[in-house]
Amino acid sequence: MDNKEKALIAAKACDNKKAKEIKLININKVSYISDWILIAEGLSDVQVRSISKYVEDELRLLAEIEPLRKEGINEAKWALLDYGDLIINIFQPEIRKFYDLENFWSNGKKLDYP
Q1: Which domain does 42 fall in, by range?
Q2: Which of 12, 13, 90, 95 has its CA 20 to 30 A from that of 6?
Q3: Per DSSP, what are the bridge partners of residue 80?
């Protein structure tokens, strides 16, 4: 399974949990830290935790991978799942605006997710 397929599994998992504004950005040509960045939005602590857990479960089941590290799950203002070649960020709206990762990674190639 290639990295794009893993990113799409994660995006679909976010969508299944009603995440908002799902963005996939391919950064392998502009950064060495990862191949894909996924950015999504949950409207509450509970939803951010739920999305994070479901994404982790789906990637474990379908791609047979585990995160290298997880951050922010308990506070759930911004949850990060780091899979090395895929970094997943799930924000609450005000935190997402503050960090503006879409702008930071604007030189990456965006992949539209319906």
Answers
A1: 3-103
A2: 95
A3: 71, 89
